[in-house]
Amino acid sequence: MSTSPGRKKLTAVSTLHYFRLIYRSLLLVVFLFIYLSYRIRGTEDVSIVLEKRPLILTVIWTVFTVEMILRFFPSRLESPGCQKQFSCNYIRTGKTEIQIEDNNAVMLVALVWIAFNGVFGALYMLEILDDGIMLLLCCVYSVCDMICILFFCPFQSWFLKNKCCSTCRIYNWDYAMIFTPLFFVRKPYTWSLLVMSMVLLARWEITFFKYPERFSENTNGYLGCAGCPEKLCAHKTQLKTLWKQIADFTEKRLGRLRGPSD
Q1: 49 and 37 in contact (C-beta within 8 Å)?
Q2: Angle, to 10 degrees, between the axis of helix 12-41 and the axis of helix 131-150?
Q3: Which tens digit of pLDDT belongs to each residue from 108-152?
Q4: Rounded CA gap, 214 and 229, in Å?
Q5: What are phi and psi of 74, to 5 degrees?
Q6: Could you tell me which of 123, 122, 120 has the C-alpha nearest to residue 181?
Q7: 74-97 confidence digits (pLDDT tens)
Q8: Cα separation values, 25 from 145, 178, 190, Å
Q9: CA nearest 135: which of 33, 39, 63, 47?
Q10: Other C-beta atoms lying within 10 Å of the C-beta of residue 170
Q11: Range name among 15-19, 61-65, 109-113, 249-253 with the lowest pLDDT average
């Protein structure tokens, strides 16, 4: 069956993103069910319950650990947004002016994120929140991470104003952001994920300050639209068009129900 000229097929990279969205969403639903069931019964903390089932923790820990380890190496199944840091993906354009989002906006994102999670941290220190809530918060963040990539990113729209994920200045901050709440959960399996995510972030920032030309579309042809293997902007445009069509259809239906105006 042929595809209409206006539609784009999902690429391997985009398909992997949707797969991550599905299994992270399932993880969130399952974890939420477990947490609520034990809270309603007033039994032991859900983190203790999970520790009694090491297979579950091992699988979750392994999945996220493998994902982070793979980020340290070039991969065709990852977005250009995180792959632009590698020298093998640096394609000189012949231009020398490095154009990157305002660093003040980057600092603002960091401060907002720290302050936002500081609220949860303070509630945790006051024993209003428990380990289970902090783990659940990580699950929520992991789903939101994929929503930012696939549908809508508030950091892009409200702070950085970057063209797309490929040129995103903070793309590899994602795992550090996801695991921020684990700072308050003092367990070997939580802190190991947090430490690894911070190492990934540190490597990203060091590379940025050493080789900023790799992060600018003006100097790195790899970030241009022509060679992008992801085409998420096309899918986002299709989604916006779909939502507009649904809104227009709904408005017409409501108009018919209201009848002719006086």
Answers
A1: no
A2: 160
A3: 999 999 999 999 999 999 999 999 999 999 999 999 999 999 988
A4: 17
A5: -60, 145
A6: 120
A7: 998 899 999 999 999 999 999 999
A8: 11, 14, 20
A9: 47
A10: 24
A11: 249-253
pLDDT at 1 over 50: no
pTM over 0.70: yes
**DSSP for the chain?**
-PPPTT--PPPHHHHHHHHHHHHHHHHHHHHHHHHHHHHHHT-S-HHHHHHTSHHHHHHHHHHHHHHHHHTTS--TTS-HHHHTTSGGG--B-S--------HHHHHHHHHHHHHHHHHHHHHHHTTSS-HHHHHHHHHHHHHHHHHHHHT--HIIIIII--SSGGG-TTGGGHHHHHTGGGGGS--HHHHHHHHHHHHHHHHHHHHHHH-GGGG-TTTBGGGSSTT-S--HHHHHHHHHHHHHHHHHHHHHHHHHHH-S--
What span, in angstroms and rounded, lies between the C-alpha atoms of 84 and 81? Answer: 6
Amino acid identity of 66? V
Token output for 203: 């490597």
Instruction: Give the C-alpha separation, 223 to 195, whole Å.
Output: 29
CA 261 to chain centre: 47
Q: What is the pLDDT of residue 122?
A: 97
Tokens of 237: 């445009």
**Burial tier of 171 (Cβ tally within 10 Å: 0-12, 13-18, 19+):** buried
The C-alpha atoms of residue 173 and residue 169 are separated, in whole angstroms, by 9
